[in-house]
Amino acid sequence: MRLRRPRWTGRLSLTQQVALLSLVPVVALGFILARVLETQIVTRTVADADQSAQLVARLGIQPELSPRALREGLTPAGIRSLDRQLSQRKVSKDLARIKIWSAQHKVIYSDIHSLIGRTLAPSDDLEKALAGKPKDAQLVTPSAHSETASEVGLGQLVEVYVPLRFAATGPPAGAFEIYLSYRPIAAAVARDKRTIMLLVAIGLGLLWAVLYRIVARASRRLRRQARDNYRLAYYDQLTGLPNRTLFIERVGDAVRREAGGRGAVAVLLLDLDRFTEINNTLGNANGDAVLREVARRLSSDLAGGALAARLGGDEYAVVCPHTDGVAGAQRTAAAIQASLETPIALDGVALNVEASIGIAVMGPDTEDPDLLLQHADAALGHARSQSSRVEVYSEDCNRFDATRLVLLGEVRGALERGEFTLFYQPKMDLQSRRLTGVEALVRWRHPRHGLLSPASFIPLVEQTALIGPLTNYVIDEALRQMTVWRRRGIDLDMAVNLSARNLLDPALPGLIADLLARHGVAARRLTVEITESASMVNPERAVAVLRALRASGVGVSVDDFGTGNASIDYLAALPASEIKIDKSFITEILGDARAEAIVRSTIDLARNLGLGVVAEGIETEAVLEHLSSLGCATGQGYFLSRPLPAEELTSKLTASFGLSAAEAGRARGARAVVPRS
Ligand code: C2E
Ligand code: CA
Ligand code: CA
Question: What is the pLDDT of residue 45?
């Protein structure tokens, strides 16, 4: 449903068309008015002429006549007197011809003297006048064949018959036949007509102008309304980006254009990580600001005709209408992620926003735009649980997507049935090579899917309140395991991971204190690992929770250090006791000078801030040696041990040395104690 204007309106605007069309009736009206007025002017002027002819006859001529003169004819002196009267123009300057008839049709007088005394056949008009019923004056053009033959040559005339009476009653004694010259009358008519026409033209012009203004204003309003309606129907009000409707239309357009061609259409679906938390904790106004900023970055960084849209909530989409396939789409995804790397400044707080991106690329079987979107959505579901946060659609995504929601629905039951379990990965003092503690990493022994890694369910659970009970379980179980080990003489510190949502729970410090007390574990033996970005979702609340934990003696470790964007200032303000360098730098440390520099400076930084430092992801002996030479205090990684179930770790600790558990706990040379599994 696209709003399209008909083609013919291309040349003229709506207002111009209405102006032109309305001109037609206005001009026609002017024409009719002019005709009607003209007829009326002529009728009125002729009536005036009639009146003046009657006055001439009755007042100017009749006094010269007598009943006798009518019976016997005028005397030559009478004729001369009338001639004088007429020539002196006393009666009328417009008089062109006059005949005075007796009741017996004899011409008593005429300005043509040859007619005087002659009896002529009367015209109908004369008969009527003689009968006392003269017709109205009328305009005539004398012709040789008519009764006005004697008036030929005088031009257009006004013909007037006036009965001639000497007594108040009885039939008239005769009649006047008077012809007035029409020329001066016509001149008066023309003058009047000009004035009236001018007035009509001005009036109609004004009417048309008013009409035009009304139409122009209405048209402007309509156009604005149409524009608003279009925006409402096709654009997102908050960000100004195209909405889902327009996006799907554009994907359809792109697919149709590309079908059979050599390029491909790629659809990228984007979902902001942890947006619900941002919204809940920083308020809707800040949430909106984040959505607007993300929209701005998205649309300003796109190239090659790509179009960004907001599909709703924190879901965005990009269509690349002409790419070279998966590689091109991945480049776009990488560019988008890079553009989101700069923290968003909100009320003085720098907020890190990350997005998961699902990609679907048009292939021979996916020339249906809806399917393309469905695939991108499935890929997005998958991307949320990947560390790369980007996933290209494949058959697996569908399967995964289907299980995703089911999994989430099963979490509560799984907690009740005890399907979650903890694996423990040792941490070692790199200088003394002694085991110092373990990190608890959760696993789900799923009845159908087998052993699930946290990556496949933590990102889901984190988005719901269920992360609370799950974290509670992890801490409770980890502390319980500590006491089991302690009874066997193995004395290890414990680290547990917290999610961003946990840090927003003001009850967490109290909860942890209760668990510590219940298991009889000293607070300083427990460390919570948090990621930089987790603490930045709502820095104030997170810092308050972390402060309370630190105050109670619990350690706070900044996990995955180096992957977030926390500033040094911010880090210094964070109540941390330890930095845990992200494994991506550790695995690269020997081959990548940049990674090495980061690790080196992080170790310095930790020392300067008085914080402990842990390197995670040590996979080879060479890396371990190098870290040790850089002065890194503690290490963790597959080279030392993979995360293991408690019993397995216990038997490794005891069996490999053939020592008692207590001795194993204190044993030096942990590499030998915990061989690679
Ligand atoms: P993390 O806290 O960074 O945990 C370290 C991850 O790195 C673990 O993956 C561990 O198995 C893996 N790892 C350890 N040594 C090496 C190594 O040498 N090389 C490589 N490549 N990887 C190594 P795991 O157990 O799959 O956990 C993944 C993530 O899930 C954890 O990352 C943590 O963020 C989260 N997680 C685990 N347990 C919990 C939990 O109880 N609660 C919460 N909120 N998150 C958890
Ligand atoms: Ca961790
Ligand atoms: Ca980590």
Answer: 82
The pLDDT assigned to 1 comes to 41
Q: Which of 213-217, 356-360, 568-572 has the lowest mean pLDDT?
A: 568-572
**Which pair of tokens denotes residue 88?**
């002196």
Tokens for 321, please give them.
């209408």
Flag whether 229 is in a domain.
Answer: no
Residue 454 CB less than 6 A away from ligand 1: yes
Distance CA 35, CA 38 (A): 5
| Contacts for 40 with CB less than 8 Å, ≥ 6 apart | none
Token representation of residue 97:
């011809």
- Contact of 453 with 462, CB cutoff 8 Å: no
Listed residues: CB within 5 A of ion ligand 3: 559-560
Average pLDDT, rounded, for the chain: 86
For residue 400, pLDDT over 70 is answered with: no
Residue 353: how many CB atoms within 10 A of its CB? 23
Q: Which residue has the tokens 């004035």?
A: 195
What CATH code is carried by the domain that includes residue 149? 3.30.450.20
Domain boundary among 166, 188, 210: 188
* Residue 556 confidence class, pLDDT cut points 50, 70, 90: very high
Q: Is 615 in the pocket of ligand 1 (CB under 6 A)?
A: no
Ligand 2 centroid–CA 662 distance in Å is 26
Contact between 467 and 504 (Cβ < 8 Å): no
**Counted domains in the chain:** 3
Give the nearest ligand 1 atom to 587 CA: 19
Q: Tell me, using a 6 A CB cutoff, whether residue 427 lines ligand 1.
A: no
Does position 659 have pLDDT exceeding 60, yes or no? no
Per the CB < 8 A criterion, the answer to whether 423 and 644 are in contact is yes
Cα(406) to centroid(ligand 2), Å: 26
457 secondary structure, DSSP code: T
Domain of 534, CATH number, reads 3.20.20.450
Give CA angle at 462 (389, 391), nearest 5°. Answer: 15
| AA letter at 259 | A
Length of the chain: 677
Q: Spell out the alpha helix ranges (H) of 235-270.
A: 244-258
How far, in Å, CA of 426 to CA of 492, rounded? 9
Write 377-381 long-range contacts (CB < 8 A, 24+). 377/269, 377/401, 379/269, 380/269, 380/270, 380/271, 380/356
Condensed to tens digits (0 to 9), the pLDDT of residues 72-102 reads 888 999 899 888 887 775 556 778 888 999 9
Pocket test for ligand 1, best of 497, 589, 624 (most atoms within 8 A of CB): 497
What is the pLDDT averaged over residues 103-124? 90
Range of the domain at 47: 15-188
Task: Tell the residue nearest (CA) to atom 10 of ligand 1.
Answer: 643
CA distance 98 to 113: 11
pLDDT > 70: percent of the chain = 90
Asked if residue 247 lies in contact with residue 317, where contact means CB atoms within 8 angstroms, the answer is yes
pTM: 0.52
> Which segment of 160-164, 229-233, 355-359, 532-536 scores lowest on mean pLDDT?
532-536
Q: What are 442-489's pLDDT values in tens digits?
A: 999 999 888 999 988 998 888 788 999 999 999 999 999 999 999 999
70 and 146 assigned to the same domain: yes
Question: 621 and 521 in one domain?
Answer: yes
Whether residues 647 and 615 fall in one domain:
yes
Which two tokens mark 513? Answer: 């204190």
Q: Do residues 425 and 465 share a domain? A: yes
Q: Does 644 lie in the same domain as 515?
A: yes
Among protein residues, the one with the nearest Cα to ligand 1's atom 7 is 617
| b/e code 285-295 from CB counts within 10 Å (16+ = b) | ebbebbbbbbb
Q: How many helices (H) and strands (E) does the chain have?
A: 23, 22
